[in-house]
Amino acid sequence: MIWHGICSNAHVYIYYVMKTTQTNILLVEDDASLSTVLADYLRSKDYTVETANNGKEAWELIMIKHYDLIISDIMMPRMNGFELLKLVRAQYPDMPMIMLTAKVDRDDIMHAYELGCDDYVTKPFSMDILICKMEAVLRRCRVRLETEQTEWQLGDLLFDSVRQQIGDQHLSSRENDLLKMLCQSMNNLVDRNRILMSIWGADTYFNARSLSVYINHLRKYLGDNSPVRIMSVHGKGYKMVIMD
Question: Labelling 207: which of 43, 94, 235, 238 has CA 20 to 30 A away?
Fold first, then answer.
């Protein structure tokens, strides 16, 4: 199938985070007709699809829900696709991306690569080719995830960073990323500035206050009787330790 007309002037970004279950997609598109057509097509291929009308709405969803893949138009009100991409890339630097666009201008392509895209598809395009490119990117993600630890036993609780859960508690994206950073450096100090730059994208007073709130959330999820503790190192950062 070749796409013409409705999608010929739209720019779409596709981002991926792999899971072992059905792929969940967030579709960010202010063109209601294109959003419906693309969402229906992806659902016909057994993807689970949720939609947002603009980048700001999408970002609010990303912060509280887990998506395996995000598809985002560029030209949108309130927050465009480039702005959304910058936020996502700051939070998830390893998240793969494919740009789907009608433009073949060299500057547009170069800018997309500078922002971190892994591939791009020009319009009109074959749906079969798009799916093949998607699957190629997903396969590369699977290889990376197979060699990356995604689960940690924290006392009586299992933390699964792919499902974003600790025990029965679902984690927000920031809670999940913060706990993962601490687990990856178990018994070692994690610098506060490194956390803020990696997860919040900026080392500011307000972000530091937000970090303290998230640390308290994680301590609450671990529970008072857990042998695992998140220790504050004054002026430096945090350390996750297992008590004897």
Answer: 94
